[in-house]
Design brief:
This protein is of the alpha+beta class. 61% of the residues lie in helices and 16% in strands. The chain is built from 7 helices and 7 strands. Strands 1, 2, 3, 4, 5, 6 and 7 form a 7-stranded mixed β-sheet that branches. A hairpin with a 3-residue loop joins strand 6 (329-335) and strand 7 (339-350). Helix 1 (2-52) runs antiparallel to helix 3 (63-146), helix 5 packs across helix 6 and helix 6 (238-254) runs antiparallel to helix 7 (315-325).
């Protein structure tokens, strides 16, 4: 599947470049042929017409028929030569493009293979460690229930805390690996466009909220404000949408101690076209004004969260990459200590509902 997607990407790129070259050659040949036709027919005929229309020559030669034959033969020769030059030029350009893309395709294949091998080599030991830590944690819990000695119970509690730390760190490393690999594949894989209805988008949002691993559900109110009909739809990758909402909703809850997190879906019109706008608002700690331009950069983290909150700073980078790969708009508005609003817009919304 990955290989097929990659091949489709390079094939489409090659075809686009060939099309541009074909249009360019067509325009140049058309302009050149028009000039040549004008010179060989109109100008020449204008100059020699008086001679052929003289009484001495007109008696033997039909000037108008001669001139018409000259025009037709000139057009025929120009068309034949244009076709030959066009075919040869586009063929040579296509071979040149293929040669130019070969090293890029090779590097992409190497990167993809490396990412695949890296994923396997890292996931396997992490899975083993995670499984062993879970088994150890389960045994400690059973031992705590039957252990009566207080000193032994204290040691078991310390051991349990240690296994919880191991499990937490493994989960963090696994998520980091997933994010890094996903970011590397944004342009080449997992961008299969499909019709995604508003109802399905709401389901993705609710799923992202349910999957949160936090204890703030009672302190932070979560809501979805949907102003659209459920069967309206957009063209997008469902995997991309899941990543977007997983990251932005997770961030909103992480940096909001109390208050609310609200996801809004609305429709707006621009230049005669309808678009979907997604807003994620929270009453969290906010972002400093001078850090806003950098906050979606890879591995960048705000000064006010570096020590207090764990993270890698890659989540918003992934969101930014997905949004721009789809030619959408991504804006972060924030006021430190008060709130943050993430706005994703310019998402084409089909006016015709899916049946």
């Amino acid at each position: 599947m990955i290989k097929k997607t990659r091949q489709n990407l390079f094939t489409s790129t090659r075809l686009k470049l060939d099309l541009i070259a074909a249009i360019f050659v067509f325009v140049i040949l058309g302009s050149f042929s028009f000039v040549v036709y004008s010179l060989l027919t109109q100008d020449i005929i204008y100059q020699i017409a008086p001679v052929f229309r003289s009484d001495e020559i007109a008696y033997y030669v039909d000037a108008e028929e001669l001139f018409q034959n000259l025009r037709e033969q000139t057009i025929f020769l120009l068309i034949v030569s244009d076709i030959i030059i066009f075919v040869v030029s586009v063929t040579l350009f296509d071979r040149l493009v293929k040669k130019m893309l070969e090293p890029i395709e090779y590097i992409t294949n190497v990167q993809t293979k490396f990412a695949s091998n890296l994923s396997h080599e890292l996931r396997t030991p992490l899975s083993v460690i995670n499984m062993r830590a879970e088994i150890l944690s389960s045994k400690i819990e059973k031992a705590e229930k039957i252990e009566k000695d207080e000193d032994a119970k204290r040691k078991l509690e310390e051991a349990k805390e240690g296994t919880e730390v191991i499990l937490k760190e493994i989960s963090g490393m696994t998520n980091l690996i997933d994010d890094l690999l996903f970011e590397a594949r944004i342009k080449y894989v997992e961008n299969k466009q499909e019709n995604v209805t508003v109802a399905e988008i709401v389901e993705v949002i609710e799923k992202s909220y349910r999957n949160l691993e936090n204890k703030k559900h009672e302190l932070v109110k979560f809501s979805i404000d949907n102003k659209l009909k459920p069967n309206k739809h957009i063209k997008a990758s469902s995997i991309h949408l899941e990543r977007i909402f997983n990251n932005v909703i997770s961030n909103s809850f992480k940096y909001t101690n109390s208050g609310e997190v609200k996801v809004s879906l609305s429709e707006y019109k621009s230049l005669g076209k309808r678009y979907l706008k997604i807003e994620v608002f929270d009453t969290g700690i906010g972002i400093k004004k001078e850090e806003l331009p950098k906050i979606s950069e890879r591995f960048y983290r705000g000064k006010n969260v570096e020590e207090e909150f764990s993270g890698t700073g890659i989540g918003l980078s992934i969101v930014n990459g997905i949004v721009h790969s789809n030619n959408w708009s991504f804006v972060i508005q924030s006021e430190e200590g008060k709130n943050t609003r993430i706005v994703i817009s310019k998402i084409p919304l089909n006016e015709d509902s899916l049946e």
